[in-house]
Sequence to fold (205 residues):
Amino acid sequence: MTLHPSSSRFSERRAFLASMAAALVAPGLAYAAGPASPASPASPASPASPASPAAALPDLGAAPEFTGIERWLNSEPLSLAQLRGRVVLVDFWTYACINCIRTLPHVNRWAEQYTPQGLTVVGVHTPEFPFERPTANVEAAMRRHGVKHPVAQDNRYGTWKAYGNQYWPATYLIDAQGRIRYKHFGEGEYERTEGVIRTLLAARG
Fold:
């Protein structure tokens, strides 16, 4: 199922594969393997109390740092190190992807509703086509779709590769200790994703 974005068949199959990936990870909180990182083993103990809902979430390894970002929009440069103690939602998207556009209202609402409670939403804009690379085009799309949270331009696929990501859109939720606790590919599962956001925020104490 691995397809590089430069594949001639990738554009045609992107929506199909993303929806299939979402179906594969949906049952029973089985969210797929962790990011492609040689140093991301599961921690020996859950960061949360065994009795807490967060303890039931999988530990998918240490979240990779934002890498190779060409420009930050709506924000000064961010790092996961400086965001430690907050819950972080990383949203891989690109503005010409219809599946991404359909998820943006949900991502925007989460950013607005939960940022005061300790959530930071970071959009990682990783383009598929050359016309999606210019900053002016990305900024126009952000205004068009009401994106007010930080967006990192990942034109060289640095962060995309660090996460071992393969799909647009893709959502990763990182707990206050910097561990990936959930990921979802494609559209849908909005209630489940929001539930995990609330669970991780509650686990911050």
Remarks:
- The longest strand covers residues 87-93.
- Confidence is low (pLDDT under 50) at residues 1-13, 15-49.
- DSSP finds five helices and six strands in the chain.
